[in-house]
Amino acid sequence: MEIYIVQPNDSVDSIASQQGVSAESILYNNQIPFPYRLAVGQALLLTKGDAPAVSPDLVAGGYAYPFISSYVLEQTLPYLSDLYIFSYGFTAAGDLIPPVLDDRFLIEAALRYRAAPILTLTPFGPDGQFSNYLITQIVNNPTAQATLIEQLLDTIRQKGFQGLDIDFEYILPQDRIAFADFVRNVRQAVNELGYPVSVALAPKISDDQPGLLYEGKDFALLGAAANSALLMTYEWGYTYGPPMAVAPLHKVRQVVEYAVTRIPPQKLSLGIPNYGYDWTLPYVRGESKARTIGNIEAVQLAIAHDAVIQFDPLAQSPFFHYQENGREHEVWFEDIRSLQQKFNLVLEFQLRGVGYWQIMQLFRANWLLLTDTFTIQKQPDL
């Protein structure tokens, strides 16, 4: 496969003729809808000849809510080794709270495609936000913790899960060691069923990095406590922040460089964002709010406004500007160029795999590029 950047006056037919590929493959790979318009600067994935030799096996995980469309799920599962079902909560007493919507169809679909269905545990409070009160209660109360672990084991057995992911955020600094002990206790219990436990890690770049996202997560302790860890290497550009790349490569690299000094690289997966943001300018801190958009949607937005897609050399991410209703907009998203650079980091540091937040929107070129770069490992491991 090759990456082609759309030039002025290009069309699908002209690119197909020049590059020796079929127009149909261009349309399919890149999800180009009728009337098949292109944006200048758009990155296209072209399928040329036989696939090259592949790299060692990779674990590829993706998070999904139970309201994912069946079509998107069926199109994505062939490329996943792990499906993280989002999410299960718990009370301060340790009682497990299942998702509001029935998640059995997700589990059954994952098993059909030989992907491991993973129970994702989150400490969401009544407001739907991460609650460090709930975290404090569960990691410091042995009785509540024992109740939660037993209910987790029962749910894994009854529903057919093949692993568990602990996604806790905003952990208080004083709970740092207790949280790592909690992860270890859960891992020991779930491992006895024959299944692995992973933990999600905020994108730290040093042991003493300040901030509520970072201080409660000790990379060395958590790397030892869990079977594997996901680096949440995204959200530099975020809903309430200033316009910038969601996962700028130079920032992502800093996180990986630090993480591998605390956790063996074969236990680490790189977080990949499957979305972008559209900001209305000017950005005003405390007032502005970016709109979340899909990567395919971003390209269609550029086409609709005749915007030229540019590529930032430092962030290694695409962006563009457009005008609407007298206001300027700035859009940052992911394309196959930015994804290829992230896959190269996985190869460079010999990481365990990748984990996508999230797979609710189909981005076919990403999955084709991923399998062109790696062989996807389809068996859960400890």
Layout of helices and strands, plus pairs?
Elements: E1 2-5, H1 12-19, H2 23-30, E2 43-46, E3 55-64, H3 70-76, E4 82-90, E5 96-97, H4 104-112, E6 116-121, H5 132-140, H6 142-159, E7 164-166, H7 176-191, E8 197-201, H8 219-225, E9 228-231, H9 249-259, E10 268-273, E11 276-280, E12 291-293, H10 295-304, E13 310-312, E14 317-324, E15 327-332, H11 336-349, E16 353-357, H12 364-373, E17 374-376
Parallel strand pairs: 3-4, 3-16, 3-17, 4-6, 6-7, 7-8, 8-9, 9-10, 10-16
Antiparallel strand pairs: 1-2, 4-5, 11-12, 11-15, 13-14, 14-15
Give the amount of beta strand, in percent: 15-25%
User: What is the count of helical runs?
Assistant: 12
- List the helices and strands in order: EHHEEHEEHEHHEHEHEHEEEHEEEHEHE
Q: What is the 3D form? A: globular
* Main beta-sheet annotation: 8 strands, parallel, barrel
Shape-level CATH architecture of the largest domain: Alpha-Beta Barrel
- State Rg: 21 Å
What portion of residues is helical? Answer: 25-40%
| CATH fold topology of the largest domain | TIM Barrel
So, the CATH homologous superfamily of the largest domain? Glycosidases
Please list the strands of the largest sheet in the order they lie side by side. Answer: 3-4-6-7-8-9-10-16
> Quick check: average pLDDT?
95
Secondary structure category:
alpha/beta
Number of strands: 17
Quaternary organization: single chain
Low-confidence regions? none
Kindly provide the name of the CATH class of the largest domain. Answer: Alpha Beta
Please report the distance between the alpha carbons of the first and last residues: 33 Å
